[in-house]
Design a protein that fits this description.
The complex is a heterodimer. By secondary structure, chain A is α+β, with helices and mostly antiparallel strands. Chain A folds into five domains: 14-138, Up-down Bundle (Four Helix Bundle (Hemerythrin (Met), subunit A)), CATH 1.20.120; 149-255, Alpha-Beta Plaits (2-Layer Sandwich); 314-370; 374-551, Heat Shock Protein 90 (2-Layer Sandwich), CATH 3.30.565; 556-690, Beta Barrel (OB fold (Dihydrolipoamide Acetyltransferase, E2P)). In chain A, the strands form five sheets. Chain A has a six-stranded mixed β-sheet. A five-stranded mixed β-sheet of chain A has the order 6-8-9-11-10. Chain A starts with a helix and ends with a helix. Classes of the chains: A alpha+beta, B mainly beta.
Chain lengths: 691, 163
Amino acid sequence: MTQAQEIKPDIDLNQFNQVFFEECAEHLAEMEQILLALSNEEPDEEKLNAIFRAAHSIKGGAGIFGFQDMTVVTHVLESLLDRIRNHEIPFNAAMIDLFLEAGDVINMQLAGHRDDAGVNQDAVVRISRKLQQLIDSSDVRCERSDAVISVSSPSSDGSVPVLHRYELVFTPDPDIFRRGVRIEQLFRELQELGELSINAGLSSFPDLAGFDPETCTICWSFNLVSPASETVIRDIFEFVADEGQLKIRETSLAVANPDAETLGEATEESVEVSGKAASPALMGNRAYDRNELAPGAYGRRAGETESTLRVGVNKVDQLINQVGELVITQLMVSQSASALDPVQYENLHRSLQQLERTTRDLQQSVMSIRLVPISIVFSRFPRMVRELAAKLGKQVELKTVGDTTELDKGLIEKITDPLTHLVRNCLDHALEIPEERIAAGKERSGTITLRASQTGGRIVIDVIDDGAGLNRARILAKAAERGIPVSDAMSDEEVWQLIFSPGFSTADAVTDISGRGVGMDVVLRNVQSIGGRVQILSEPGQGTRVTISLPLTLAILDGLSVAVGDEKFIIPLNSIIESLQPAAGCLKTVNGKNVVHVRGDYIPIIPLHELFNLPARVTEADKGILVLIDVEGEKAAVLVDALLDEHQVVIKSIETNYRKVDGTAGATILGDGRVALILDVGSLLLMHKSG
Amino acid sequence: MQTGRNSSDRNGTNAPSEYLTFTLGNEEYGIDILKVQEIRGYDPVTHIANAPEFIKGVINLRGVIVPIVDMRIKFKVGEPTYHEFTVVIIMNVLGRIIGMVVDGVSDVVALKAEQIKPAPEMGAALNTDYITGLGTVDDQMLILVDIEKLMSSEEMQVMDQSI
């Protein structure tokens, strides 16, 4: 830490440091993801390259930003990876764990610099030493194998590289210098392929009087002895030579000599050659990569072909706010203009329609900036599951479905903790150890499925396990123990809800994974705080499904505006089933509470004016309008004076300047500039039940 | 103690601090001018369900939802009437924007520390906890309100106490 500060130059690097921290975290996450996907089998070159690139980028960044201590681990890691990549060290499964550990150490160092937290130097030294050991052991092995190199090496797959002799004639077009092609670079790359000799000649005799040094009249001929194939050579010339300008002829074949003594000599040479030349060309591990533009090339992640722009969230939020204002202003203008004669002001009305369309499009585009795929959250679980499963002696397979489902960045941040908790619960409580599973006639390894999807206006995330399921009797017993009123007649759904009570835990033993009883109630509260709901479905012996449903975004909502007295409220459209004007005969009372009979269902009526203490024009249900709402399967009818309009509203927080208001999910600004509260049907129902 | 929040003391100089004075009924009050964002007329508000009576509701202040409190109701001074001369002081308190309905805004006065006297235990409609002191300007008494303390207090119910 102190070392890093000493190295820092005078200019303030802090603003850049943030970028480095972010990028570094991304690289680490990527590395971890790839490592976990490797699952013990021999990794392909693509994956190894990706890990190598991540390590290299971190090292490079750390060096630039003066975090020298971070380059230590990354450097050793990089060296080791390089050897694996060049098949100098065989890959084995234990390395995955070692690499993961190294990733953790780098992460710790990163956190140390970012948050000024302490860095465990012992861990740094330990992991560096472990990695170095692997490298050293391979060096020893290499030396030992020198003696038998003619038999097993150089390529571990057994094929002795065959040397080719090429004659190349390159006649460039006269413009080549003007195009900025660096010929010497070309030579250097050829030289890396093997033994090279170059001769220059004249392709056309220049007119001395009109000699122009920028016109190329030279042609080159090369003699190259290399194990590389013709394509590799052609690749080097790819951007330089046009069709017909490069002629390659293979003159003689340097076949492996059957004579043992000369073979040793020959292969020695080829080892040298392949070591420094063949692999770079084939795998692209040089610091500059000719194929840099290709996806997956050096420093680039596979599939990332479009360019991106890093922008602060507050800037995006500001943009969203301003567009929200624009939408409101546009509504205000439209409302004022609607009073004008449509014939006389035809042009104005047409323009206003155009404006409305454009603002809507603009709003949608702006909103989409904040959307990120849920894979960001999902990708952290494989590691956790792997480690916890090993710790608990369970076999678990993690499946993720719908990784590309997009949701608001704000939601992503808030949903991570609850999901982590749920997955931990699955591992610790729900899934059984292999023996129990076999005894129950199930497969040895349990399955946890994370599934995200978008249905209607909501994002639904399921955490599904095929474990033992919730134990109804035990939950009831525990609840009774804690003084929660229970009865055996409670439906399963009601029983499952009990686990959301604060401090509730059925775990017999408190482990460091879960079971401390600070659990499901926190999950519920976190999810509710972002307008979400949690639902549990469980079948004994079959497993449990916890469903979290979230609003699509925190910033915009389709709503129906209703009037109660002088006030207007917005009811989210996605919770409305229908609205109706009940006949007097449909209205009944149950225990003094009003219900309405709709197609065989008795649905409780929530009189909004009573709940909110408002002077309403309508107090009798048969004179007003009932809006039927659906709260995760539970129905209710909200009594209002009148239905007004359907809007797309921008959600504003009341809590920014005020406090939470029961029964509301925020506020919005209507076309006339006034504020309307947005109802939260879920909490309305709760208010109605408790009051 | 009473002048502890005074900027003149904070700066270690005796420079006067400026106060915006307003009336509630017959009483004259003053708040730190630096807390005042703007002064505007009274717009119709949107009522908030189950809020105390003195919280009139919320308004749209250029896209921001701002709660409006009526001090006249809270402190039972003056008549809570709303007409074209009713004034709302929009304040920036602890990072929040809050509107306060008053009977009228009169002046901005500069007070030196020696012009501010500690408040007696009783007298104003306001709990003395929220009064930084009493100022005297031209024989007129000013009740100086610690608006941050007042607005963040539990009895105002403007902010969640958990924060």
